[in-house]
Design goal:
Oligomer: single chain
Radius of gyration: 23 Å
Shape: rod-shaped
Largest sheet: 2 strands, antiparallel
Number of strands: 2
Strand order of the largest sheet: 1-2
Number of helices: 2
Length: about 80
């Protein structure tokens, strides 16, 4: 009888893991999900950059670099 309980637990474990993975994926990919990046300079000025979670990596890098350059330009102005 103990072997049957152990088998039942082990047999349902992949199903439970798949369900947890599915729920996490739904939460992470929900519409309107965003990532917030905070950039700061030496004087402590901060700029928050909010990007949609589905922004491609290349575009994300370009936007963050542009905001960093703006922050540096304000620093030297």
């Amino acid at each position: 009888m103990m072997e049957l309980k152990s088998f039942a637990i082990v047999a349902t474990l992949p199903l439970v893991m798949a369900l947890i993975s599915f729920v996490i994926k739904l939460i992470m990919e929900r519409p309107g999900a965003t990532d917030v990046y905070t950039l700061s300079d030496e004087q402590g000025r901060k700029v928050d950059v909010v990007l949609p979670r589905h922004t491609p990596s290349e575009e994300r890098i370009a936007i963050l670099n542009a905001k960093a350059q703006e922050l540096l330009q304000k620093n030297f102005s």
